[in-house]
Specification:
The chain is α/β, with parallel strands linked by helices and about 550 residues long. It has three domains: about 50 residues, no CATH class; about 325 residues, Spore Coat Polysaccharide Biosynthesis Protein SpsA, Chain A (Alpha-Beta Complex), CATH 3.90.550; about 80 residues, no CATH class. It is built from 17 helices and 13 strands. A seven-stranded mixed sheet has the order 5-4-3-6-9-8-10. A four-stranded antiparallel sheet has the order 7-13-12-11. The chain has a two-stranded antiparallel sheet with strand order 1-2. α7 links the parallel β4 and β5. α6 packs across α16. The two termini are about 50 Å apart. The N terminus is likely disordered.
Length: about 550
């Protein structure tokens, strides 16, 4: 069937209207209502949604140029995940409280509000144990290009404007890391930006459609959060900084991977905290192998808008996280968050590492050791940043919106361990590197140059939406004057030493006002409106 907007509406001309007209006024009224409905749908399709509607267009396919794992890997990947799929009924939450992760007393008992029958718990246990039994072999040949490092994100037509902002801000920080953008959908304007604009910023748009062609039902229909683990695995980079499309770097992230840089050197996995108390159900730890339930105050809930992986060292924990996400929406997401704020993939990555370390210590899991190389002192651990994010934003007409400001990982100085090993002793290469950071006095203070990411929890940084008043990207004050996206510029200048918001507008106009995009009427209007606002606010 023709998938163009015109093709979707073409069936109207074949509709037998004369059948209705024979019935007199009642049927005539029905026809009128029907035509009015289709007119409204057509308007929405052509003049608004058509710009964001996915369309099958030819974009760069990674399997054609060695930019993704080979298709044989994906057959194994989906086969193993499907063979261990959780068959239990969907997890239900009982007596849910919206304030579940806003408890003022850190010593409060961990919430346990999952409702799961005994036979379903047994199915969970069997599924989890089956995957772990396969994990060492599964992880031993995870594909990647050795000694490569880059940034990975994922997007579709509806949020591709956010990725444009991410790429522009990343380059403004001075980052030189290559960027891979995995698309879950595309459209003509996205395809053109991918082909003409992104290469100028060393960014590549990738699709897995052709790679997965012929696999049929073996490939599930992924939703929202699930594309994150797929893109990390599909990336050819060994060392990955994954960023959500709405998580903009404001400090050069390349230093995370610098020679001897900690905590990456001693961990290979870095996660950041969210605002809240963790709400992982105690049942999860029983299902995962009878682990001890950690104290509630041992760490905050996780933020998955930014994650750092060495896929060589953490192939196994990454694939366990993939299992949690594969079974996420009805099973592991509610089990790991119990419907608390931000439920989704956010807890899956760090928890996977914690589970495997606990199982290894119990003697219940023997990890792959291909990453261990005598003489170079490479370690494997996990590092969960302890410093909580801060918040910054704007106020317009009594409504406040903002984003989370996240610091770079900054462990206390420590002596590097020697590299005299001459034989492979597993314990010599393992470390629980969470000790590299400690919880001090949680005083929220702005330090010059110490903020690394702006993660937009409210208005998303998508300039293609600048014409949509409901989106809220542009606001005015009580006097009708446009206000800045990130509020008070004094704090931005004090923290970062430069007007990053102004620079983002300038760089974005360079994209949306470029002649190569002039064929898209909506982008012409975006460009015009950006120039008006820039003139009023930033000059």
């Amino acid at each position: 069937m023709d998938q163009t907007p015109l093709g979707r509406l073409a069936f109207l001309r074949h509709f037998p209207l004369k059948v209705f007209l024979r019935g007199g006024k009642a049927r005539f009224a029905a026809v009128a209502i029907l035509l009015f409905t289709f007119a409204c749908l057509a308007y929405r399709l052509f003049f608004y949604d058509g710009f964001y509607a996915p369309a099958r267009v030819p974009i760069r396919h990674p399997n054609n140029d060695n930019h993704a794992p080979p298709s044989g890997w994906w057959v194994e990947f989906f086969t193993r995940l499907e063979s261990t799929r959780v068959t239990a009924r969907a997890v239900k939450i009982k007596d849910w409280d919206a304030a579940i992760n806003w408890k003022p007393d850190i010593n409060v008992t961990r919430e346990d509000i999952v409702k799961l029958r005994g036979d379903d718990e047994a199915k969970f246990r069997q599924s989890h144990a089956s995957l772990v039994d396969q994990l060492a072999l599964f992880a031993s040949h995870l594909p990647y290009e050795a000694n490569t490092t880059g940034i990975v994100t994922t997007a579709g037509v509806a949020n591709f404007g956010q990725v444009i902002s991410l790429v522009l801000m990343t380059r403004r920080t001075g980052s030189r890391l290559p960027i891979q953008i995995f698309l879950d959908s595309s459209s003509p304007w996205v395809d053109l930006v991918c082909a003409k604009t992104m290469p100028r910023y060393n960014a590549t748009c990738l699709s897995l459609d052709d790679t997965w062609a012929g696999m049929g039902r073996l490939v599930p229909k992924f939703v929202r959060f699930q594309w994150k683990f797929v893109s990390i695995i599909a990336s050819t980079f060994q060392n990955v900084l994954f960023l959500d499309a709405d998580c903009l770097p404001v400090m050069n992230p390349d230093a995370i991977f610098g020679q001897g840089a900690e905590p990456f050197t001693s961990a290979g996995l870095i996660t950041w905290p969210d605002f809240w108390t963790p709400t992982v159900s105690p049942l999860f730890y029983r299902i995962a192998g009878g682990m001890d339930v950690p104290p509630l105050a041992s760490r905050a809930s996780s933020e998955s808008g930014m994650i750092v992986y060495d896929k060589a060292r953490h192939a196994d924990s990454l694939l366990l996280a993939a299992y949690y996400n594969y079974n996420g929406p009805k099973h592991y997401y509610p089990l790991l968050s119990q419907h608390a704020a931000g439920e989704g993939d956010k807890e899956t990555f760090l928890q996977a590492a914690l589970v495997l370390e606990a199982l290894r210590q119990q003697g219940a899991y023997k990890q792959p050791t291909a990453w261990m190389e005598p003489g170079i002192g490479v370690k494997k651990g996990y590092y969960d940043v302890k410093k909580l994010p801060s918040v910054h934003g704007r106020s317009a007409k009594g409504k406040w919106t903002g984003q989370k400001n996240t610091d770079p990982p900054a462990p206390a100085p420590r002596k590097r361990e020697g590299a005299e090993a001459t034989s492979i002793v597993e314990e010599d290469f393992l470390t629980n590197s969470t000790f590299l950071a400690t919880v001090g006095d949680l005083v929220l203070e702005h330090q010059h140059g110490r903020t690394m990411f702006f993660h937009h929890a409210g208005v998303k940084p998508d300039f293609t939406r600048i014409l949509d008043k409901k989106w809220g990207l542009v606001e005015t004050d009580e006097a009708g004057r446009y206000v800045r996206l990130w509020g008070d510029n004094g704090w931005i200048m004090e923290t970062l030493g430069r007007d990053v918001e102004k620079l983002l507008w300038e760089d974005s106009m360079g994209v949306y006002c470029h002649e190569e995009l002039a064929q898209f009427k909506r982008l012409q209007e975006v460009c015009a409106q950006m120039r008006v606002i820039y003139q009023q606010v930033y000059t």
